[in-house]
Write the structure tokens for this entry.
Amino acid sequence: MKRAIRYLRFSRKGQSNGSIERQELYTDQWIENNRVELTDTFIDRGKSAKTFDRPDFQKLQEFVAKHHKKVEYLLVDQMDRFSRDAGEALIYVKKLQMKFKIQVVSVTEWSCYL
């Protein structure tokens, strides 16, 4: 069975925790529909996407560097979970895919980034 990790984020502390619940719901649906095992979840609550300096985003990067051979997918609800700068997000996605061979899947936008 293929395995996935996921990254969830909302930007303001005052923002509803429902945002995380919604992201979990959509990524859970993708996991179930694609018969994939969820290995780990990384969540940054109340963290802006203006910088990559976020606690669980850093943990995600460490996890990928160490366990990339055991994970096929990185799931996000939308690409802006990585960065509000679309170009910056795509550079990060390309790095993950080229260096670590992990397919990044935006479960509510396009099916994947190749």
About this structure: DSSP finds three helices and four strands in the chain. The chain has a mean pLDDT of 83. Residues 18-33 form the longest helix (16 residues).
